[in-house]
Amino acid sequence: MSVTLVGEGEQASLAQHGMWITERMGAGGRVYHMPVAMWFDGPLDTDRLLAACDAVVEAHPALAIALVERDGAPARVPAAVAPPVRFEDVSGRDPAGLIERETALALDLGTGPLARFTLLRLAPERHVLVFVAHHAVFDGMSKDILVRDLAAAYAGRPLPAAYGDAVAEENALVAELLDAAAEFWRSRWRDRPGLALPGLVAPSVRAAAGEVVDFSIGPDVAAAAERIGVTRFELVLAALHTLLRAYGNDGAAVAVDLSTRTERTRDHIGLFVNELPVTVPSAGAFDGTFADLARAVREELRAVYRFRGVPLARAVGGVSPRTALTPVSVSYRRRDGDDPAFPGLRVSVDRMMFNQAVRGTLHLQIVDGPDGIAARFQYNPEILGRAHCESVTGHLLALLDAIAARPGSDIADLPVPEPVPEPVAEPVREPAGEATADASLAGAAPPAGEVLPYAREVGEIWCEVLGRDVGPDEDLFDLGGHSLSITEIIAKVRERLDVELSFDVFFDAPTINGVAEEIARLKEEEGC
Q1: How many CA atoms lie within 13 A of 72 on its CB side?
Q2: I need a surface site. Which of 3, 247, 367, 453 has the fewest CB within 10 A?
Q3: Rounded Cα gap, residues 65 and 112, in angstroms
Q4: 291-327: pLDDT as tens digits
């Protein structure tokens, strides 16, 4: 089997680059695991299904790559190990623990494999196929493509040929739109980590162990959306903005996962998604009817769609590597039609399988399918208790029920909660590395006029990478730096000073002096 069509050292996409940086900083992990479980009842031909798994890998070479550093940036290479396809007879055992075991196994971006298939036999005519992939090679729509192609291969039908290199096309489009995107976001984007929610201890834009509150959105919402002239997603997003505003969040941005798929990539597994912030353009929009607000959100989404392929950090800079762009985020996916058939079998698919991690403070996941609208709040229990997340869920459902009954109502007449105080604790922004324990010493500024060892060399590198003069204590991200800037700086420091910087230093001390101090420390350890 040809495990990949990817050559040695082909360019990674910008979305993959961002995940690679986040993983290198130790801030990714399970939050990037994308699991799918398929349950089979009936006389399953296990050899045939395992062969179908191999066929899917053959048809979708993105599953068989790894990301390695080349000249300071990640490149796509064939993984050292092909995605494993395993069978295990676990008859009589509790499947929950076995499924958790499979979803928790690490996925190493640097070596692979970045996907795995495990078929578990629970009884003679009861099986579950557990698939897990790294988000760098798999997105939400890939789940439907996976199920479709497994069914086709199991039935003996040919799979579509792999599309050529979409990454080069994506990156070229970003370059073409970058100036216009920068102008678009200049008046819209404000990095506001603050957030007010009932019972919230502190907002976060970093990954953490998570829990969930599941609920469903009634069918009346679809009818209300049609009456207003918006989609179901646009209505729910407008309701979420209304709720956040009621809690006391003025001008809050909600990060939305937007598909970047094109006609040529719509049938292929891979990472074709970009997270972008959506705000309500005018605070006055909350003074009118909900219908007008929903239409304003629709217009804003349509404006954002033009730049859906451009990562925000590339357009505006100043966005530090993180797993969540904003404390509150949303993903929405619509499924049309029933699941494809596996001959002679009854099959159910868990597309909302939880990876036990949350990307920020609160993430709303929605799958809008033929059998209804399934929704889930993922939350960080360390900063938002379950009872409080359930309270947010209740507030949203009450609001949606009222909107469904009277979509033209004034927002002032809708059942919105009272404002809540904003947390007094500092926002959780980045991982707490070991070096932060001595931050009061390591980050201390040198006496006035004194130039730290290696500060001049580091300063030259920063000026080259950022294309401007930089002060010794100016923050990289405040200057418009982003993940590509970090990798370029690390590569130049390696080349000129023979030092391998950790990505963590750009969280702990993202200044010229901070990096110079780290270089001096590493040189001292090496005895230089």
Answers
A1: 15
A2: 453
A3: 7
A4: 999 999 999 999 999 999 999 988 987 787 889 999 9
